[in-house]
Amino acid sequence: MADNINVDPGTGVGAVPVATDDVGGVQYQIIKIVTGGDGVATPLSNAAPLPISDAGGSVTVDGTVAVTGTVAVTGISSTAPDRGAGATTSQTLRVSIASEQVDGSEYETVAASQTDQVIGPTGATGDFLSAVLVIPATTAPGVVTSKDNTTAVISWPGGTLPSVIPFTIPVGANSVNGAWKITTGANVSVFASGNFT
After folding, report:
1. Is 100 helix (H, G, I), strand (E, B) or coil?
2. Residue 156 belongs to what domain range?
3. Residues 6+ away with beta carbon under 8 Å from 64
4. pLDDT at 8
């Protein structure tokens, strides 16, 4: 059976052709889509494409979508990471990290037998303690305790050592309770590095 059929609407004008598609002997009517509100019927075209709305939800697209023209993107923070310069196919991501989170350029020494020495001129919440270099004076040094204000975070018990070679205790943390404080026992001093207030 061929496509398209004639249909008599019963208005006295006779049969009129109706576009159909023959699928296995069954005629499926071909219908054009129009858009618009009440009283409006706009045929789809390049100038009036089919509108798509997520109705406040989300739209998932599988596969590859070719985009031309300008795409407006909302909801991205003004401090979003910058992909930086490069080819349009570049996938390099440039991220800015606050210096207080990684910087270890400041330091303070703590002599032996000190109690809760504040690290930094005044010390404050958010100070970054990168590492603590423990410097034994003898092979039997005392303890070393690092505190986030009054909360002990790392405590090295001291005791008997095979040598007096200095060693590092990595910390890599920002204080949340106040200034960093370090207590040293007898025969042991400390070199604390980080970013301090």
Report:
1. helix
2. 100-195
3. none
4. 87
Long-range pairs, 97-105, Cβ under 8 A, ≥24? 99/195, 100/126, 100/127, 100/128, 100/174, 100/195, 101/128, 101/174, 102/128, 103/128, 103/130, 103/194, 103/195, 104/128, 104/130, 104/131, 104/193, 104/194, 104/195, 105/193, 105/195
Single-letter amino acid, residue 42: T
Residue with structure tokens 């023209």? 69
Give yes or no: residues 33 and 113 share one domain.
Answer: no
Cα–Cα distance, 169 to 140 (Å, whole number): 18
**Mean pLDDT, 10 residues at a time, the chain of 197 residues:** 84 85 90 89 89 78 83 66 56 62 80 97 93 96 97 94 95 94 97 93
Backbone angles phi, psi at 44, to 5 degrees: -70, 140
> CA-based Rg of the chain, rounded to a whole angstrom?
37
Q: Specify if 32 maps to a domain.
A: yes
